[in-house]
Each structure stands twice: as structure tokens, then as C-alpha cells.
Design goal:
Layout: H1 6-9, H2 16-24, H3 34-40, E1 53-57, H4 83-93, E2 100-104, H5 114-123, E3 127-132, H6 136-139, H7 146-152, E4 156-160, H8 166-173, H9 177-190, E5 202-206, H10 217-232, E6 239-241, H11 248-256, H12 260-269, H13 273-277, E7 284-287, E8 293-294, H14 297-301, H15 318-322
Parallel strand pairs: 1-2, 1-7, 2-3, 3-4, 4-5, 5-6
Antiparallel strand pairs: 7-8
């Protein structure tokens, strides 16, 4: 596995304009535009239904370099959210009906202000989700107490685990990742996460290792629970099956492996009107490490800022953001294929 991010490689796909130009050429590969598909079901323009979740990317720094990563995160990324930007987010949330703050990265725990931010959010009475890659817990002694910190603040831990076996997990996320992930899961279980007699929620994220859609989420969850319990005495609550979107490193994989056209056709052929109605961008606002606002995490990575509302958290306008039209492009087919896909798994 190449241990450098696209940005460090000076790869042409590190330029979001290059990614968008590839995605926009839908006629060249013989598929309709996402707008056309929405028009056929009466969903265009796609509108927000009101914000329930702030999803905050606190930085692109990560201790891993995963081949599917849509953030292009890694140890060489220096983009980190400052406390000043976090305070602007806290000001924006105050007095709203936003229920949940979903912290992501990179490895969000690597932000020096991460713990302070979690404390401030929970003091406001908001729920916190942390997207933890698991290996960060073992990466450095200063992270070893993260399970206890998460427990203290009742954080919902959502952890990536591509498969219940080492070979497929390590192929996607790096050599030795599976073993470290299992150890981290056991540490979380030890403090009560994922246990049947506990309200500490531990969820896993599965995403396919190749150019195909995830299988049935309920069946995958049953398999993961059985294999992890039998093999490693690990327990968890729910499994989220997430479709890989054709951007950043996964787009690079699709092009390099000559699977791009076939994958896009597969997404289009699996278009589900019910999933389109339930896309996460309708009730979620995505905030980048430098405070810019996006309809979703994927739009953020393509630098597609909000279209008809203030674009920075310092000028946040709840009414305008709640009533906004959502920006769409061809990558959106990934969230509307099959059972649908969101940061919370299947949507139908």
C-alpha cells in the first residue's frame, strides 16, 4: 500500500476540479446526470428538511493511510481545526434544535483541542459521535485512556472495521490494522461499550474493499457479531454498511483498476427513489476544519460549498441553511444506490 496521500504525491486527483471534471462527464460514459434522475421522481431541486446533525471535520491528520479514504487523510496532512473555529461552531449550535455533533477527520482524536471540544459540546446537552479508526487508541500512550474519556462523556463511538478477518481489513487499511483494531475494541468493551447491559454505544462501519456495493446490512451485522464474538470475544451494537463514493483515493482506485465506468453504471442501475428521499444531506450540515460549510462530507472533499446560504460558520444563518437547495453531482449516485448509504448506514 502506498503510504503517501494523494496530496503528498502531487497526484492530479488531489485537485478537486480534476475529480469534478471526471465525474461531470456522464455523457462520455453513457449514464444520465444525477439531476435528471431526481427530476424523474420529482425531487429536484433537492431541499434541506432542517438540520439535526452538525458533522464536523476537525482535521485531516490521521495515523493511517487507507486506500479508500475520501478525505485523503494521513500523517502528512497538517490541516487542523483551531479552538477559535470550534468556538464559532459552539456559538452557531447554541439555541438551535441541533441534537448531535458528529466528529470526524482524519483521526479526530489527533486534534489537540479534541477533548476540550467534546467537553464543551456535552455541556450544552448535545450528543456526540466520534468516528474512531480504533488504531489511534493504541498509537500513542496519550491515547490509551480514550475509552475512559469516551465513557465519561457518553460519546457514541463509531468505528471503521472493513471486515471480520485480518487479510481483508489489512488490505484496505494497512498491515497490522486488524490486530490493533481488535485490541481497541476489546478495550472499549472492557469499559462497557457495546455490551448488552450498557447504554454506551459502539457501532461499526463496513465498506466494500472493491468496486461493488455492500451486501445486506442486517445480514452483514449478524455475520460480524458472530465472527467477532466467537473469534475475539468482541461485542458491538450496530453495523453500518456504507457505499464507497467515487471521489479522492477511491476514485483513483477505480480509474487505476479500470473499474470506473462499470462502477458508475452499477450505481446508476441501482438508483433507489426511496433512498434519494432519505439522503443524509437533507438533515445534516458538514463543517470543514477551516470552518466552511457544505451539504455533506463528500461535497466538502470536493470543495462544493453551500450554494444559497452563508458559506462560513462565522456567518451562520440557521434559517437560510435550513431552507437551502442542496448541491448535487454524479458522486451522489453512491448515496442513492440499493438500500441507500449515509454515515449512519443504509437509509431504507
Amino acid at each position: 500500500m502506498n503510504l503517501a496521500t494523494l496530496k503528498r504525491q502531487n497526484h492530479n486527483l488531489a485537485d478537486t476540479n480534476r475529480q469534478i471534471s471526471i465525474l461531470d462527464d456522464h455523457e462520455g460514459i453513457g449514464i444520465p446526470s444525477f439531476q435528471e434522475k431526481l427530476e424523474t421522481i420529482g425531487l429536484f431541486p433537492l431541499k434541506s428538511t432542517g438540520i439535526d446533525i452538525f458533522q464536523v471535520n476537525v482535521g485531516k491528520m490521521c495515523n493511517q493511510v487507507c486506500k479508500h479514504c475520501h478525505v485523503d487523510a494521513g500523517p502528512d496532512r497538517q490541516e487542523i481545526m483551531t479552538r477559535d473555529t470550534m468556538m464559532q461552531i459552539l456559538d452557531a449550535i447554541g439555541g438551535t434544535d441541533v441534537k448531535t455533533v458528529d466528529l470526524t477527520g482524519g483521526a479526530p482524536e489527533m486534534n489537540p483541542e479534541f477533548r476540550w471540544f467534546v467537553e464543551q459540546i456535552t455541556e450544552m446537552g448535545k450528543s456526540v459521535i466520534v468516528r474512531c479508526n480504533l488504531t489511534i487508541i493504541l498509537a500513542n500512550p496519550k491515547y490509551h485512556d480514550l475509552p475512559d474519556f469516551f465513557k465519561k462523556h457518553q460519546v457514541n463511538v463509531v468505528s471503521s472495521l472493513p471486515y471480520f478477518a485480518a487479510r481483508r481489513t489489512d488490505a484496505q487499511r494497512g498491515e497490522g490494522v486488524f490486530e490493533k483494531s481488535i485490541k481497541a475494541l476489546q478495550m472499549l468493551n472492557e469499559v462497557g461499550y457495546g455490551m448488552s447491559d450498557s447504554d454506551l454505544k459502539l457501532d461499526l462501519v463496513y465498506n466494500p474493499s472493491g468496486a461493488f456495493l455492500p451486501g445486506d446490512q442486517a445480514e452483514l451485522e449478524q455475520q460480524f457479531k458472530q465472527k467477532l464474538l466467537e473469534g475475539y470475544n468482541v461485542q458491538f451494537n450496530e453495523l453500518y454498511a456504507i457505499t464507497n463514493l467515487p471521489i479522492s483515493r477511491f476514485l483513483d482506485y477505480l480509474i487505476t483498476s479500470e473499474n470506473y465506468e462499470d462502477y458508475m453504471h452499477e450505481l446508476v442501475n441501482a438508483f433507489n427513489p426511496a433512498a434519494a428521499g432519505g439522503v443524509m444531506c437533507r438533515n445534516t450540515l458538514s463543517i470543514s476544519w477551516d470552518g466552511y460549510l457544505y451539504d455533506c462530507d463528500f461535497n466538502q472533499m470536493l470543495d462544493l460549498k453551500l450554494e444559497d446560504a452563508p458559506v462560513h460558520i462565522s456567518n451562520f444563518d440557521l434559517t437560510a441553511t435550513n431552507e437551502r437547495t442542496i448541491r448535487i453531482s454524479q458522486h451522489c449516485f453512491g448515496c442513492t444506490a440499493g438500500a441507500g448509504s449515509s454515515c449512519g448506514g443504509a437509509t431504507t
